[in-house]
Amino acid sequence: MYKANSVESGALLLLKNERLMKHVFSLFIIMITSLAACGQKQPSATQAASKGENQQITSQVDTLGYIDLDVEAFREKMKEPEVVILDVRTPEETAQGKIEGAIELDYFDEHFADKLDSLDRNKTYLVYCRSGNRSAKASALMVQKGFRNVYNLKGGYRAWTSSSGQ
């Protein structure tokens, strides 16, 4: 029968101790993580909704480069300084009414992209059209051209007038 010498016995003992230490360390990490999680406050429903909304906005900016706003948020954004309201509808459409103070810049004008180049890229732009489709395209083009603060009115002028925003 083979009898292990003292070096082999020491190596086996060290190997067993190393395995034991790994298990102890793993349990220690699990315990610390559990205690840390128990000590954290859970967000309220409002905070959770706000956080989700902020993540959605961040995601949208990362994807599109501009932010869609509903009528209420658009109206609030209008109160900020250095805001430019940009109506990208046709002259025929704007003749039927527009948001007060809006600059008219027809999306279908063959020089639309060139006219965007004359605008200050550092200002905040609130863009709208009839339904939100053209203004979304205009907003995307503005972002491509280096505009950093671009907001699109979801639902466009139709949503604005149906919410009595006039």
Key descriptive features of the protein:
12% strand, Oxidized Rhodanese, domain 1, elongated, 7 helices, 2 domains, 5-stranded parallel sheet, alpha/beta, 5 strands, 166 residues
Q: What can you see in these coordinates?
A:
There is one protein chain. The protein has seven helices and five strands. The protein has 166 residues and is an alpha/beta fold. Mean pLDDT is 79; it is low at 37-52. It has helices at residues 6-39, 45-64, 71-78, 91-94, 112-116, 133-144, 156-162; strands at 67-69, 83-87, 103-104, 124-128, 149-153. It folds into two domains: 1-38; 52-162, 3-Layer(aba) Sandwich (Oxidized Rhodanese, domain 1). The protein is elongated, with a radius of gyration of 30 Å. The longest helix has 34 residues, at 6-39. Strand 2, helix 4 (91-94) and strand 3 (103-104) form a beta-alpha-beta unit. A five-stranded parallel sheet has the order 1-5-4-2-3. The N and C termini lie far apart (99 Å).
